[in-house]
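::Encoded backbone::
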Amino acid sequence: MSKEPSMACPVCRTELSIAQLFISEEAQRTFNRLAVLSIPLGVRVLRYLTLFTPPKTRLTQDKQLKLIEQLLPDLERGAITVGGLDFQAPKGLWDMAFDRVFAVADDGKLSLPLTGHGYLYSTIRDQSNKAAAKAEVQTEQDRRNTPQRGPLQINGGLTSIGAALGNQDPALADMEQRSSQAVKPSNEIRKRIAEITGKGGPRAE
């Protein structure tokens, strides 16, 4: 009896029969969901599975699907939950976290094979915190660099920023102008008031 045609995954080295690739609807749905997210991200996920492979053995298809399905909900919602707290995790951050895990593994600083996603998720959490802190600093800098609305001194009088830029309501601008004039009487009016109150020197007969 001839052996059923098979192929090995170039990433995780798992041997699958051609029939398995077409018969398993669950596998098709899982890999379709992964492909919809991002092909480059999907390649990283498949490479990530190799970190769960014990020496001289291969991961079964069921094990691969289980690992991928554990990640998919968080990959799709763009967030993770660690210690009861949610952390934003867009696709770019997942890419960065996977690459960091690979680098640590290549340096021999990661205990293999992995038995869970704890290290990956702690890496995503740390990167998410750094991104959030950076965004907060940028927001504060933007706030400080934004001109504050308030009165401006123009040609000896007070006017708002909106009026200075020519986009203030005409009625409001007229009210501000009248208020400014009322607060500061002219020299002629001041002189007349002084004459009436006797504070401006002797009056002419």
Remarks:
- The chain is about 60% helix and 10% strand.
- The beta strands are 6-8, 15-17, 79-82, 85-88, 151-154, 157-160.
- Residues 22 and 28 are 8 Å apart (CA to CA).
- The first strand starts at residue 6 and ends at 8.
